[in-house]
Amino acid sequence: MVPMKLLFADSTTRGYGTEQHAAALAIATMQRGHVVRCIVRGGSSMEAILRQAGVPCVAVPPGRASGVRLVLQLLRLAQRERPDWLVTGDGRFHWVFMGLRRVLGARVAFFRHWPVVPKSGRTRRMLSRRADRFILVSRFHRDEYRRQGMNVARAAVLYNPIDTERFRPSPQWRAKTRAAFGIDSSSVVVGYAGRMVRDKGIFTLLEALESVLADDPQVHALWVGDGADAAALRERVRVSPCAARHHFLDWQSDLAQLYPACDLIVVPSISAETFGRVSVEAQSAGVPVVVSDAGGLRETLIPGVTGLVSAAADSAALAALISGLIRDGERRASMGAAGREWVCENFSFGQIAREFESLLSEETPPSPD
Length: 369
Description:
The protein folds into 2 domains: 5-161 and 348-361, 3-Layer(aba) Sandwich (Rossmann fold); 171-346, Rossmann fold. The two termini are 29 Å apart. Strand 4, helix 4 (94-104) and strand 5 (107-111) form a beta-alpha-beta unit. Mean pLDDT is 94; it is low at 365-369. 42% of the residues lie in helices and 16% in strands. It is built from 13 helices and 13 strands. It is an alpha/beta fold. The strands form 2 sheets. A 7-stranded parallel sheet has the order 3-2-1-4-5-6-7, sandwiched between helices. Strands 10-9-8-11-12-13 form a 6-stranded parallel sheet, with helices on both faces. The radius of gyration is 21 Å and the shape is elongated.
């Protein structure tokens, strides 16, 4: 393996799946021995994740004209480092990278995370024909872009890398997190982590949990996240007869301490997901999952082995699957162990970094200027 020089760029301040994917890929490639540099927003979750992992990065302070300063810093960094590859999933940098490609001779790798194709025909042509690598995050994602009329002949699929050393079973964190909420060791905890918006299926899950919690006083719900519908969700819980067994936390960029406290994690999206990072992280922590059949979520587990798949937006079906797993502790344990093994084999930093290396090393037809 010949070490490569890679420059990653991201301008967001959030810490959800898209941003964590970029940070994880930068960390994974650095751990494989490549020279990695990053440019990010100062104070962002991505900066914190990268610095904790020891990845060199330039952080541009937030404030007026920070977008311009971000681009100027990127130009300086690229000229100084002379990277082999410029990598981003942030559309802000597409055309800047294409200009640097022409001037510096660096190649560009563009990730796309959104389920909808770009509105601009010029951007679609740039991604599908001119970029050296155009990368989507699931087979569903590629099929969906094809269905929407985009040329995906050169589009590759690369799943999200997961830090299987950080996301792992932990009896210590299980006990500590449960104690913080006053949940005893004999209770069963059903968890949700993600944006609190209707499309993520939070109200479908709430309806399912209301019947589950009413049937079994030993079941608790742990909600982690924030978003436009968080207040509405909390209000519905407040007037629920089982309100005392719903527990809320704002979004945490590091969920490694929270997954082990749960006995199962639910990803109940009602709109198509391109992937489903929470599902894979939970399985890495030895926690079985129940996901909706929405887009690429089915690719994040082995149905019936590491978790279960429910019809999207069907609270009764979701409640039945959750109840079945609550009653069957042995099945939860076997699914958790199988999920941990499967994620380590297929989504670990080392595995995805090797696949990324292979993708960047492939011979492809020259991209037109």
